[in-house]
Amino acid sequence: MAVMTAADHLPPNAGLPAIDWGACLAQHQSWLKRIILARMGEPEAVEEVWQQVALAAVEQRWPLADPDKVGPWLHRLAVIASARYCRQAGRLRRLKRGLAAEQYVSGPATKDRDPLALLLRRERVAMTRQALLRLLPRDAEILLLKYGERWSYRQIAAHLGITDKAVDCRLLRAREALRRELAGFGIDEDET
Description:
By secondary structure, the protein is mainly alpha-helical. The protein folds into two domains: 19-100, Rna Polymerase Sigma Factor, Chain: A (Orthogonal Bundle), CATH 1.10.1740; 134-192, Winged helix-like DNA-binding domain superfamily/Winged helix DNA-binding domain (Arc Repressor Mutant, subunit A, Orthogonal Bundle). Helix content is 68%, strand content 0%. Helix 2 packs across helix 3, helix 5 (137-148) packs across helix 7 (164-184) and helix 6 crosses helix 7 (164-184). The protein starts with 20 loop residues before the first helix and ends in an 8-residue tail after the last helix. The model is unreliable at 1-13 (pLDDT under 50).
């Protein structure tokens, strides 16, 4: 049975000389920033990611003692920090697009908006999109032109090469088909 000593509880590099991270970061800063820029393509974000890399290097839990491994280790930190930033920026862009789409669908935001009503509205919008996908393409097309693009009967007729009366008939048929599809999802006409 092996006896544990106090040295067994120390990090593997304990006792070795510490690396001067200020000097190392200054030495590698130029090329690492180029790596970050190449990974991200956003010059305005390079400094922020560089700060994350520097902070991670200084706050490391298991000190790196071999000076020959500092460059590759910092490179790995830069790649990881760049990927994290890109993922976070992507999530933020998707959130902003979603909020913008929600505002377009439901009107301008107000302080007293009910969160439950907002969730129900989002669910109805998603179900309506699914119902539109189940329609015949020409029915979905005419509904999207009328209500998505807000075109008049005359504009639709001119673009589709049909008469105003034909637009009226097609819209009537498309609305009925959409109502049937929405009823299949449990959405009544009164709810929309």
